[in-house]
Design goal:
alpha+beta; Aminopeptidase; 7-stranded mixed β-sheet; 5 helices; Bact_Acetyltransf; N-acetyltransferase; acyltransferase; GNAT_dom; transferase
Length: about 170
């Protein structure tokens, strides 16, 4: 597996991985497949990944196996609620057929390297409360809930989590 910076040529595959991962965790969390299969949403994700890859404020990496993008991570600077500098882990996505192969852990390690390289003392993220797989993943990697959240789909929330830089 290779972790590398993506090019614009990778954006469609990254957006496809994001779309499949998103559909899987939302459906596992109880949302109907129809609510996760909106074609406009897939177009929006492609546009958002294009902006992220081109942005000087975002750092993006993708995981590649046999010349196929199988995962991606997006990160950048953030401001913690207490006003301290932090790095935001915006998203990690791994193609569902590749789950359990250590790809997410490698992408997370890339975020930890980013924390050190940019001298950020902490990381922040938010995760859908019904995404139990992600919650377990982040807890395993040392993240803890901050006690704050924001509204999510279908009477759920997105939980905010914090990681002190190791």
């Amino acid at each position: 597996m290779l972790i590398r910076e993506p090019t614009l040529a990778d954006v469609d595959r990254i957006a496809d991985v994001h779309t499949r991962a998103r559909a899987s965790y939302y459906q596992t969390g109880g949302l109907l497949a129809d609510s996760t299969a909106d074609p406009a949403g897939a177009d929006h994700r492609r546009e958002a990944w294009t902006r992220a890859v081109e942005s000087p404020d975002r750092t993006i990496y993708c995981a590649v196996i046999d010349d196929q993008v199988v995962g991606a991570v997006a990160m950048g600077p953030a401001l913690a609620p207490d006003g301290t500098a932090a790095a935001q882990l915006f998203q990690i996505h791994v193609d569902p057929p590749s789950w359990g192969r250590g790809i997410g852990t490698r992408l997370h390690a890339t975020f930890l390297t980013y924390l050190h390289r940019t001298n950020h003392p902490a990381g922040l993220l938010e995760v859908w409360q019904r995404n139990t797989r992600a919650l377990l993943f982040y807890a395993h990697h040392g993240w803890s809930p901050t006690g704050t959240n924001r509204p999510g789909p279908h009477q759920s929330t997105y939980l905010h989590m914090h990681l002190q830089a190791p």
